[in-house]
Amino acid sequence: MRIEDEIIDLGEHQLLLRNAGEEDAEMLLECLKTTCGETRFLVKEPEEIDLTLDDERKFIHNQNESKQNIMLLGFVDGEYVGNCSLMGMEQGRFKHRVSLGIALYQKYTGRGIGKAMIGKLIEIAREHQFEQIELEVVADNQRAIALYKKMGFEIFGTFPNNMKYKDGTYADAYWMMKRL
């Protein structure tokens, strides 16, 4: 799915949201490795990321050509800050649902960027007649949970021991959903 580039005013700064291009593959892989190393809230360890540039280019191409998926890149004052996405489901009984994902470099959290990105994804989901947006969030990620609640998401369930870390500890996750 593609959109027109959009600039969102964040007060002192501007956020540019645009579709990823295949030329962004290297930047996206580096971001994934970095953000996975910056926080325990994402699903992989940096060393688990074994995608090739060709794999990432194909993924970007497929996202852009999809009718139910979208990936947007965020740039603040020209600097890449992270990305967000919606992933729809192909099966007929699930076509009304879409999953939300977002990852920002830690130095850009708490600045309203995530809120603006999620707001845009909600708008896109409504335009494409999705009926609900879902996400999973680590139960310890209180800042993200507070933001999701502020954006209208509710907790509908808990996945105990959803993730197991290298040190042997576990993290629960919440399943959150927003009805559109």
Automatic annotation (TrEMBL):
It holds the Pfam family Acetyltransf_1. The keyword Transferase applies. It comes from the Bacteria. Keywords: Transferase. InterPro entries: Acyl_CoA_acyltransferase (IPR016181), GNAT_dom (IPR000182). One of its GO terms (molecular function) is acyltransferase activity, transferring groups other than amino-acyl groups. The keyword Transferase applies. Gene3D superfamilies: 3.40.630.30. CDD domains: NAT_SF. Residues 15-180 form the N-acetyltransferase domain. This is RimJ/RimL family protein N-acetyltransferase. It comes from Hungatella effluvii.
